[in-house]
Amino acid sequence: MPGLLLIGIMLTWSGASLPETTPAMNRALNSSSPILADRLRGHVSHLADEIGQRNVFRPDALHAAADYIRHEWAAQNYQVNSQYYQAMGVKSENLEVCRTGKTKPEEIILVGAHYDTVRGSPGADDNASGVSALLELTRLFATEETEHTLRFVAFVNEEPPFFFWSQMGSSVYAEAAKARGENIRLMISLEMLGSYSDKPGSQSYPPLLRHFYPNQANFIALVSNRASRKELRQLVAAFKSHSDFPVESLAAFEFIPGVAWSDHLSFWRAEYPAIMITDTAFYRNAAYHTAIDTTEKLNYSAMARVTEGLFHALKALELP
Description:
Number of helices: 9
Number of strands: 9
Number of domains: 1
Order of helices and strands: HEHHHEEEHEHEEHEHEH
CATH class: Alpha Beta
Helix content: 25-40%
Shape: globular
Strand content: 15-25%
Radius of gyration: 18 Å
Strand order of the largest sheet: 1-8-7-9-6-4-5-3-2
Largest sheet: 9 strands, mixed
CATH superfamily: Zn peptidases
CATH topology: Aminopeptidase
Distance between the termini: 32 Å
CATH architecture: 3-Layer(aba) Sandwich
C-alpha cells in the first residue's frame, strides 16, 4: 500500500498527532492564550453573527466585512492598501498591509485569508476563523522587525461562483503581483482554522490517506503541491520548533479533493510557492458551507495556539 500511494498520488505526509487524551490533557489544551482566544472569538462573532453571510449577493454585508478589516488594521497603525475591481457588477476589494523586511525587503512572505462566504452560510469557520487569525497575526507583528517583508492580505470572492475563475480575488491579486515581477517567496493561505475534536473517528480523508493519518480531528494541517514541498518542510519545521500543537503536513497533486480549494491555488497558477493551513474543512466539519457554520462551534483556545505557533514560525522561517 505505501508504494502504491507514493507512486499513484506522489504525496509526502508527516507530523505528530496527540496521544490518547485525558481530562487533564484536555484542560491543558484549552488553557492556552485566553486573551488571544477572546480576540479571535470577537472577530469571528463580528463577521459571522453581526454581519453574517457576506458575498456579492449581499454587497452591503461584503463591504461591511471589508470595512471591519480595514478598521482593525488602521487601529493597529497599519497603512491599508486596497485593490478594487468589479465582480458581477459589485465593487470588490482585496485589502493589504505590510511589514517591510529589515535585511531582505525585496523578498515577500504573504499571508492571506478570504473574508467572503458561500451563499446561505454565516461562515464562522469558513472563513471568519482564517480572517481572525490574520488580524491577530498583524497585531502580533505590529512592533516586530522581520528579515523578509511580511505582507498580509484579506481576499474577496474566494467562494463560488468565483472559485477557480479569474474574478476570484486572489487570482486578481496574484496576476497583478506576477505582472509587477514581485518576489513572493511563499504564500500562506489561512483556510478554516477553528474545528477540532478528540473524538475517535472525527477525522476523515480522501481515499487511501486514512491509512497514514490520525483518526482524531485534533491537529492542524499544512498542505502544498509538489512544487512547494521544500517551503512546506521549512514551515512545518519552524512551527514544530515553536509550538507543541499537533500538526500534519501533505504535499500532493492538486487533483486530490480539497488540496487546491482555496486562495493558494491562484498563487500556484502564478508559479509562486504556496501552502494552505487548514483544519481540513469538510473532512471534519459537518457545518461546512451550511447555515450552521456558527460562532459557538469553534475552538478558540486551539485557534490561539495555532495562531501563536504560526507567529513564531514566521519569525523564525528560513526559506530555501
